[in-house]
Amino acid sequence: MKILVVGANNFGQKHLSGIKGMEISIVERKPEVIEKTVEKFKIENVYSSFEDAIKDRFEIVDLVVPHYLHKEMAIKAMEAGSNVLVEKPIATTLDDGEAMIRASKDYGVKFMVTDQYFFDPSVRAAVKFIRENRIGRINTIIVRDQRFFEHGGWRTDKDQMGGGALIDGGIHFLDTLLNFGGNYESIHGKSIHGGSILNGEDNTAALFKFENGTYGLFFYSWSYRNPPELPAFEIIGEKGSIYEDVKSRTSWEVGTPVRTVYGDLIVNGENANVKKYDVYTAEIMEFADSVKNNTEVPFPPELALRDLKAVLDIYKL
C-alpha cells in the first residue's frame, strides 16, 4: 500500500513514525526537513508540489497541513481516487466539513480525521467501563488541559487556524469529553484572549449539560504560566470514579516505543491495567485496515464534525 504524507515537519514526523509496512512518499519543500526525514524513514519519493504528487496513484493521502487548507486539499486528493486522512480539526467550518464527507461518498473513498486522543487506550477503556455501568450513573465529567504557548508559525494566525487554541488543541479534549458524555443539550461558557502570542483566543471555560443529565466541566488554556499537574479527565459516578493518573503519561517523542495521550486509568481507586499501544500507529494503521478490508473507518468523520460543532458553539457564546 502506498501512502503520501503531505507536510513532513513537526507533527508530520509523528505521523511518519506511526506508519508500518507501507511505501511512503512525502510532499515537503524545506531542504532541512527533507534531509532529516529521508535519513530517519524509508522514503520512496519526495515531491515539492501537492498537485504533482497526486497525479501518481496513492491508496492513502495523509494531510498534515494548516486547518484552512483541509477542505481544498482533501477533495483534490479524493478526486484523484485516494483515501484521505486529515489532521484535526476536520475543517474550520461545518459547511466545509460536510462538503468533505459528501465528497468522500461521491468519489467512493474512505475519509477520516486523525485524532490520536480518540484512539487512546485509556479513553477507549473508560468508555467501555461507562457502558458497563462500572461506576453507576455519571453525574459529573471534568476535562481540562492547561499550558503556555510560546511557539511561532501558522498557529499564531487566526485566519489559518479558524480560531485559536480551542479549535487546534482544545478540540482533542472536547472529543474526550463528548465520548464520555454523549450528546449535549446546552453549553454555557466563553473563549477569551488571556495573554499568549496567539491572534485567536487562548483560554476557554465551559459547562456542558448532556442529554442524559450528566454535567461536564471543561477548561482549556494556552495562556496558563507554570501550570500544575492535574488529571486531564475525571468521571464521577454515583458508585465510584474514573480518572487519569497524570504521573504515568508517556513521551510523544519520535522513537518512544509506545506513545499514549493520557496516563493510566484509575477506576474506583485502583489501576485498571489498561494495555498500552502507540496511538499514532493505531490511528493510521486502523485506517489502512479499513481501506484494505473495505470496512468502516475507526473514527467516523461525523464524530469529528460533532467535535467541530462543539468548538463553534462555544465560539458563538
From TrEMBL:
Residues 123-242 form the GFO/IDH/MocA-like oxidoreductase domain. Residues 1-113 form the Gfo/Idh/MocA-like oxidoreductase N-terminal domain. InterPro entries: Gfo/Idh/MocA-like_OxRdtase_N, Gfo/Idh/MocA_Oxidoreductases, GFO_IDH_MocA-like_dom, NAD(P)-bd_dom_sf. Signal peptide: none annotated. GO terms for molecular function: nucleotide binding. This is Oxidoreductase. It comes from Ferroplasma acidiphilum.
